[in-house]
Amino acid sequence: MSDPLWIEIAVQTPAHSQVGGLLSYRSLQSLLPGQLVRVPLGPRDVLGVVWSVSATAPELPASSVRDVTSVLQGLAPLDEAWRQLVQFSAQYYQRSLGEVALSALPPQLRDLTNEQLARRLKKQLTERAVQTTPGPTLSPEQSAVLTEMAEGTGPFLLFGSTGSGKTEVYLQAVERMLQADPQAQALLMVPEINLTPQLEERVQARFGTDAVVSMHSGMTPAQRLKAWLAAHAGHARIVLGTRMAIFASMPHLKLIVVDEEHDPSYKQQEGARYSARDLAVYRGRLQNATVLLASATPSLESWHHSRPREEGGRYVRLHMPSRIGTGLLPKVRSVDMNKQPRRAVLSTQLVTAIQERIERGEQCMLLLNRRGYAPVLHCADCGWKSECKHCSAFRVFHKIDRTLRCHHCGLTERVPRACPECGNADIAPIGRGTEQLEEQLGELLAHVLRPDGKPVRIARIDADSTRLKGALESQLAQVHSGEVDVLVGTQMIAKGHDFRRITLVAAVNPDTALFSSDFRAPERLFALLMQAAGRAGRDAAQSARSEMWVQTFHPTHALFEALKQHDYPAFAASELAERTAADLPPISHQALLRADARTQEAAQALLNAARETLEAQLSADPGTQDLVQQVSVYPAVPMSMQRVADVERAQMLLESPSRMALQKVLWHLHGVLHQVRSQPEHKGVIRWLVDVDPQAI
């Protein structure tokens, strides 16, 4: 009988548990790092990833080390680059290694027997043929960008205006990669699921259906497993996906494209709070793959990194300022709502412009980033408002199904016949959402006829109207076919869609982001408005009369002035100057420590105790005293959304000009939290978590 091997294995355990690292097991059969195994953990058998193999026994009592139960046969080990990516992600984002590793694998792998896995592997195509169809003739700007990519090393930031042909650049880059290396794989990432089908259709038409798989959370477990197996085996040459796809096992990865790289959806908001965009850059370095980040409105972080090398830049900036063909960017017009009748939803000028477009057979799009009919119901007699009893938020009035719905915890109730506090029957909506805008448009345009003599058709696309499977695809198809005259929606309609008939886009109420407590709000607003404007005039023949209307009470605001000129560099320069003066990201680096508890006092008490203990420990050790000066740790405060589903939430901000110093403090904080959490006075705390590089504070 051969001597046993001692195996370090990653299994799924949360970061705030005491079992956060690798666990030791024994195996009588030879294993390799990256293999998938089943091991006992407590009373259960769980899936694990072999991380290291040694002939030397660990310094543990032999009786406490258990045996590996079984090995998943037929799968090649997860390669070293994948394991390094997972290890870096766990360390940087302050999560357990096993939690990141196992959540990156398809859920079905956890339950499959070797026989079931063998059947699925047998169904996999052993060879996925790439059948490249020639693309359109490139513009001079597209050709120049591809040449620069071929001659440089990157990472690259492609700053291309809406309609400049960025997608064709991606497809050409994939084609050249496949020609240079017959085994190579490409990863194309999009921020949201609803953008995946149209890109998938275009990529499949170009390279054949066998060569392409998708990865996103809207897929069934069986679909996710099939796609993952194809990518892991190297059969799938092109993977399309949302942020989760950054962890796809792709052993021959040579190109990573992050489309709309500025989009906050690339930041995971639960579990391991990773940024898929930032990990794309890191993974490119690990696997010697070309990385292309692309946007018409890059994130200020990426824009800052793409400054000239001599100024400290790390990315190469590529520029495509012109639309394909003779297409022009829409003219931006602002409407001063101070001069409109009080409570007017749509200005008379905008209604007239919409009517003219409809009568010419053109389409219009109205953007209002708030779903529902109205944000709140209100009683004028006693002041009652439709607050959620479980959250620090109002329940939104949905007129279509006569409900009050909390968009945070999901609490839904019928609208009361009268005020629950005083019995007044005259309770009214305050504010407006997409439902109300759709209704009012119907009234304002009731007399307008299309060129064929038929009445106006209005469609609404938001999270409520697209809840049913296939609803979004069906509605988008109606817009593309010309069945819809006016499209009303939230930010879902502003990104990435190639609507050829739209010549007018209007932002109905964008002012709230101008004075938000979130320092990133202006950046997000500018990106949203630029993206929305880009939906107008995508057909070159109509682009000369395309317009973007902005209804605002602050028409002279610098953000709208930059928007009128489509001048992202000017906006970015202004924002970066403000961030530099205030030492905000990307000039500095931040992390949030959050605590959830039954009371706000308990949540803040844990955070403040951790802060005091951390500062005492760092100050007492000569090796860490300098970290106290380098990293600011602020007192705990309630989160802006203080209570969700009866759970009170507090946060504590850590900030430093040095990313390295911040990481060192977070490493110390991890131990402090376990120490403080175990004290009896903190029993009321439900959980804590760390969010590195938070997107919202």
- Separate helix tally: 18
Taking the alpha carbons of the first and last residues, their distance comes to 59 Å
Helix content: 25-40%
| Low-confidence sequence ranges | none
Q: Could you explain the architecture of this structure?
A:
The chain is of the alpha/beta class and 697 residues long. The protein contains 18 helices and 29 strands. The strands form six sheets. It has a seven-stranded parallel beta sheet with strand order 9-10-8-11-12-7-13, with helices on both faces. It has a six-stranded mixed beta sheet with strand order 5-2-1-4-3-6. Helix 12 (471-481) links the parallel strand 21 and strand 22. It is globular, with a radius of gyration of 27 Å. The termini are far apart.
Brief summary:
The chain is of the alpha/beta class and 697 residues long.
Short key terms for the protein model shown above:
697 residues; alpha/beta; seven-stranded parallel beta sheet; six-stranded mixed beta sheet; 18 helices; 31% helix; globular
